[in-house]
Amino acid sequence: MAHTLFIADLHLKPTRQDLNQGFIDLCRSEIARSADALYILGDFVEFWIGDDTPTTGIKPSLRALKTLADTGVKVYFQHGNRDFLIGDAFARRYGVELLDEEVVIDLYGTPTLLLHGDTLCSDDVDYQNFRAMVRDPAWQQDLLGKSPYQRIRYAQQLRAQTSQAVQAKSAEIMDVNQDSVINTFTRYQVQHMIHGHTHRPAEHRFAHGGKTYCRVVLSDWEQYAHYYCVRDNGDSEAKTLPIQPRLTTRLRRWLVKPALALTLLRLMLRG
After folding, report:
1. Residues 101-130: pLDDT tens digits?
2. Is the pTM of this model over 0.90?
């Protein structure tokens, strides 16, 4: 039966080889290889500072992505708040198609809005101001004009700042604002939406203005691998896959720092 898969918020990184293996297993699975398309709705990786980013520790996942695309499965990618600097070179290298921040697709006869989901969290004013800054093309060009070493240092500083900011915020302020949800539905004149970002997987149905709306929130991959599958007969399911802890995950937590330091040193010497 024809079907399409959706994933988001994998946050792939060298220190979580279990997550990397989970993604590789998904790409190699029959459900993925027989899919019409795979949509990645942002935060595929923990951070991305340009298409010349060192990919140490996640190369097998990227190769699996390319292999899946080479089989004929259409792979679409939307930017999240961690990987908004993924560009055309990445898309060409790994066989994916970059989508706009918000896009409506025909999902087996149902117009469906796809987005990462962070724009719906409008109560978090500080984050929305930050988002406006980093999504500005001039700001991005300025950052990409810096050396990889400078960008890595800047990304590390941003992650430290955002981690502190998140700890100080309430859970409610980091969730979606219902008015923003309704306004977004109305702006695109659709009644079905799929997004990630909040790490609060659920299927929300509600009535408004005489219409029924459905908002599907994809799961993050912190503890398990997840995908959302929609079939051409209208059925859908959220599937959880077990992730097997790997010895290399613990080892890499010790090894990745020296490896990253060596990479940075090489970049400094090269510059």
Report:
1. 999 999 999 999 999 999 999 999 999 999
2. no
Q: Render 10-75 in DSSP notation, one character per residue.
A: --B-TT-HHHHHHHHHHHHSHHHHT-SEEEEES--BS----TT---TTTHHHHHHHHHHHHTT-EE
Could you give the 3-state DSSP secondary structure of residue 176?
Answer: coil
Each residue's pLDDT tens digit, 129-169: 999 999 999 999 999 999 988 998 888 888 787 776 666 67
**One-letter identity of residue 11:** H
Beta strands in 102-196 (DSSP E): 102-107, 110-115, 192-195
User: At which residue do the structure tokens 């390319």 appear?
Assistant: 66
Distance CA 27, CA 43 (A): 17
**Beta-sheet pairing, 3-7 with 37-41:** parallel
Is the Cβ–Cβ distance between 113 and 106 less than 8 Å?
no
Q: How far is CA 82 from CA 14, 35, 77, in A?
A: 15, 26, 13
Distance, in Å, from the CA atom of 4 to the CA atom of 74, rounded to the nearest integer, reads 10
Which listed CATH number (3.30.1060.10, 3.40.50.20, 3.60.21.10, 3.40.190.10) goes with 3-270? 3.60.21.10
